[in-house]
Amino acid sequence: MACTKADGSLTQMAKDLLLALQNPVPLHTLCPTLQVPLYRIRSSVRELQSLGFVKEVDDGNQYVATPLGLEHARK
After folding, report:
1. Residue 59: alpha-carbon gap to chain centroid
2. CA distance 1 to 24
């Protein structure tokens, strides 16, 4: 799942994911909230990590949005 549009802005799914990651959480807990399978969440998180919008915490067991990620999610 691509997290960015052709113009470089974030997709709504990416924004929703970043906002769901305001506090550190295990990714599997987001599936019911976002109504997206875990493999799609993991793929999106990898892409958002490469952009510097998400970081791993708790030895990779949890993820959290960075301040930069939250700034872009609120645009």
Report:
1. 17
2. 22
Give the containing element (helix H, strand E) for 64.
strand 62-65
Compute the distance between CA of residue 8 and CA of residue 60 in angstroms, rounded to an integer: 27
Say if CB 10 and CB 3 are below 8 A apart: yes
pLDDT tens digits for range 35-58: 999 999 999 999 999 999 999 998
Sorted by where each starts, the structural domains of the chain and their CATH numbers stand as: 12-73 (1.10.10.10)
* Whole-structure pTM value: 0.91
Handedness of CA 21, 11, 69, 73 (dihedral sign): negative
**Rounded-to-integer distance, Cα 15 and Cα 74, Å:** 7
